[in-house]
Amino acid sequence: MQLDDLNAIAEKHRSSRKKIIVRTCMSAGCMSSQADVTKKNLEAEAKAQGLEADVEVRRVGCMGFCGQGPLVGVDQNGEHGLWEFVKPEDAPVIIAALKGAECKLQRGDPKHPFFAKQMHIVRANGGIIDPERIEDYIAIGGYTALHHSLTELQPAQVVEEVTKSGLRGRGGAGFPTGLKWGTVAKSPGPKKYIVCNGDEGDPGAFMDRSVLESDPHLVLEGMAIAAYAVGADQGYLYVRAEYPLAISRLQIAIKQAKALGLLGAGVFETPFNFNVDIRIGAGAFVCGEETALMASVEGKRGTPRPRPPFPAESGLWGCPTLINNVETFANISAIINRGGAWYAGIGTEKSKGTKVFALTGKIKNNGLIEVPMGIPLRQIVMEMGGGAPDGRQVKSVQTGGPSGGCIPADYLDTPVDYESLTKLGSIMGSGGMVVMDDSTNMVEIAKFYMEFCMEESCGKCIPCRAGTVQMFHLLEKITQRKATARDLAKLEELCDMVKNTSLCGLGQTAPNPVVSTLKFFRKEYEELLQPDPFGPNSNGTAKPATK
Amino acid sequence: MIATMTQKKPSRLKAVLEHASGDKRFKILEVHMKKNQFRQDALIEVLHKAQELFGYLEDDLLLFVSHKLKLPPSRVYGVATFYHFFNLKPQGEHTCVVCLGTACYVKGADKIMAAMQEKLKIKSGETTADGKVSLLTARCIGACGIAPAITYDSHVAPKQTPEMALEKIKSWI
After folding, report:
1. How far is the C-alpha of A498 from the C-alpha of A496, rounded, in Å?
2. Nearest residue of chain B to residue A243 (CA atoms)
3. Distance CA A284, CA A456 (A)
4. Could you tell me where the beta strands, DSSP code E, fall in A362-409?
């Protein structure tokens, strides 16, 4: 495989395209509403209505507007239409509409802020290409960034370009990607590894699932470029077992890329070798932590270990290992193709580029959005999301899952970037954004997250193992109206202790939902408290035992 | 004492291997291990396959895996019990997985769960006495756009209500 061959595939594929393309979303969300049957029906109907020669019914990945799904997109005469809430039996009217017939289905508006305010880099191909056909990816310029890196750039130049872009880790912590790559590249050792963290465990987040399901080659290409830059020849893609569709699409993608010589030995007929294996998770939230994830890749219990040494120096089997999130890798090919400077021009001073968010919860427009960094939260929630449904008010926005916090509605003008969210006691996180309306009880939410952390604590270090249990019981006591001010004080004390003494990120961030709800919604806690029979303001119904 | 220990261990293993020789599924599992070159780091992959074939991971099966991958049984058992995805007990004829991710939770998945528990008279993670239905919870299946979601026998159903869920399991019990 050389560049000419790649271009030939792209050209051949482009020229064989039919006039009209009917795109059926076959991502996990729409699949649950029989999108596969819809696609079959559309194909049969196109044939029945004599449009077989002109119409291609294409399987595509996520189009983003999951709450209005199943979605079917239509590209005809240079225009892009979108049908919402499509059922399998709607196939005849959709095909008839291609010939100008009237169609009563709900039409999506591409000018709606939900779409208009988006900026696509990671999700550029989502909902457009067939994720199970490598030709589709090549036809839109796929794998040219890898070719360019391998043939025209030195590994150090690739690292430099990524550094210049200002890209930061999209898994949540926001470590500068270029710096990480540079550290791994400099670490000595004959064997290095690349790991892609697809263990998207935060409840309420599905960005990585969507990227893997919609555009698996984009992630593989990013990994291959990273491998070249740091000098690795083996990669592992760690995916949750809860994402069977993503796993099967990745398996197909790896097989196709190998068959074309885009992965494996001698990529693009250069001396560069790169193999990727999929590692399937088995349902442990802690495996999203990098050292725990590496233990899991090695087939062990997914328990974290202290850092340093960082994986960049000593990772898988003691070798230098580069570990990045799915979304981070998905940004790479665009950075190489269009330059680090271009990427650095998007976003804010310290947070560059775009970020994909899963906008869910009590909000009118559910779905996946990609927005430039620095966009005010209000635009996302009120304009794109359309605010809370049923005439209710938005009360708070939760970002960062169990490691994040709740941002109250008063702070909706906060720009979405790493620093601003951290300042509010939340985090950027992997991109889950759950909107809560005024019917939501914030103490219950804090308890919900604490229960999550309690069950997901791996049990290795005591502050996390025992602390989360105690905090959960205190929260339960509060919600049952059995707690006093002293219990609340104990809870705050424990939050501080668990945060500062836990071994890994899970424990260190587990108190965040409690701390942030206490900070902004303290009244809700205090309303549930009972008078303390032994406290300073007690009414004297109980006397201290010491008296 | 050492003598009895060394004697006892192979006999259990022998029984397992003998039993395995008559069961096709063990053969398939061994082929899968071979595909992974019997690599010890493929343990989780192997356990996934084993659960797919047998439905759950019983002790003998774990012993078989530990023997074939040349890993101590403690390590195999340790991994099998660490991850939520692996079941050490047989599952019901049907499974119903209620997603309790944040998006599903704020949209009422807790009420669905409560209704199901009351109807089936079991708690989360349990199987009805007649072995018909297992009620499980998931931490987030990534279908937040269509919350609350429930997985009935590996088919994801969108935008569920307690009524819809009870209707669905009616045919199972």
Report:
1. 6
2. B141
3. 7
4. 367-372, 394-399, 405-408
What tokens does A95 get? 């095909």
ipTM: 0.90
Chain A environment of B43 (Cβ under 8 Å): 299-300
| B85 to A366: CB separation less than 8 angstroms, yes or no | no
Of A388, A409, A437, which residue sits at a domain end?
A437
State the count of interchain CB pairs (< 8 A) between A and B.
Answer: 143
Question: Does the beta carbon of B156 lie under 8 angstroms from any beta carbon of chain A?
Answer: yes
Structural domains of chain B in order of their starting residue, each with its CATH number: 2-82 (no CATH), 94-170 (3.40.30.10)
The pLDDT-based confidence of B8 (bands split at 50, 70, 90) is low
- How far apart CA B151 and CA B136 sit, in angstroms, is 9
Determine, for residues A280 and B83 on separate chains, whether the beta-carbon distance falls below 8 Å.
no
Convert the pLDDT of each residue in A255-271 to its tens digit.
Answer: 999 999 999 999 999 99
A361 contact B CB<8A: yes
Extract the tokens encoding A186: 């400099």
Residues of chain B in contact with residue A247, where contact means CB-CB under 8 angstroms, are: none
- Which of A285, A313, A344 terminates a domain? The answer is A344
Q: Hey, is the C-beta of A66 within 8 angstroms of any chain B C-beta? A: yes
Distance from CA of B4 to the nearest CA of A (A): 30
Could you tell me the pTM of the whole model? 0.94
Phi-psi region at A369: left, alpha or beta (left = phi > 0; alpha = psi -120 to 50): beta
Neighbours of A198 (CB within 10 A): 29
What distance in Å separates the CA atoms of residue A178 and residue A164, rounded to the nearest whole number?
Answer: 8
Q: Does the beta carbon of A280 lie under 8 angstroms from any beta carbon of chain B? A: yes
Residue A81 is inside which H or E element, if any? strand A79-84
CATH at A390: 3.10.20.600
User: Does the structure show a pLDDT above 60 at A339?
Assistant: yes
Give the structural domain span for A403: 354-437
